[in-house]
Amino acid sequence: MLRTLTVQKEVSTKLMKGLLDLIILQFLSAQPMHGYQIITKIRKSFGVYFGPSTIYPLLSTLEKKGFVKSEWNMNYERPRKIYSLTNNGQNMLDLTEESLNLICRKLTTQPAIEQPTPSEVTIMAKVPPRKQAV
Q1: What are the structural domains, with CATH classification, of the chain?
Q2: pTM to 2 decimals?
Q3: What is the Cα–Cα distance from 62 to 89, expressed in whole angstroms?
Q4: Residue 134 in this model has a pLDDT that exceeds 80
Q5: All residues at 6 or more sequence positions from 100 whose CB lies less than 8 Å from its CB, including other chains
Q6: Which of 24, 54, 58, 85 would bridge 50 by S-S if both were Cys, CB 3.0 to 4.6 A apart?
Q7: DSSP secondary structure string, 23-77?
Q8: Which sign does the torsion angle of CA 61, 24, 38, 8 carry?
Q9: Phi, psi at residue 45, to the nearest 5°?
Q10: How far apart are CA 69 and CA 71, in angstroms?
Q11: In the predicted model, what is the mean pLDDT of residues 46-59?
């Protein structure tokens, strides 16, 4: 049971790393946020911590690509850079969600890979490897 939870956490973290930009865009589609809010929301939502050294460069990249925009808000104790989703960011989010849904559908509809029977394994083991042409 503990091993299953560990593997599950590893898989979850790996997926999070690969989809972090999508997750940030999704959060920003709900409301504008500053960087620390995003860090906290990721931790609370997924149980994974990504620190400022990961989140802020990613936000900068998303801004350079035109997916998010930022503006300074001086209404806090200290100035905060507030990020919001642009139209291009919403389009990217929509396309990415469609692609992920398609991948998930294909994964669930693909027939299982058939494992070779013991006799096929024996035959494959007896066949010598082909020599490569020089």
Answers
A1: 10-108 (1.10.10.10)
A2: 0.73
A3: 8
A4: no
A5: 19, 22
A6: 54
A7: HHHHHHHH--EEHHHHHHHHHHHHS----HHHHHHHHHHHHHTTSEEEEEE-SSS
A8: negative
A9: -80, -35
A10: 7
A11: 94
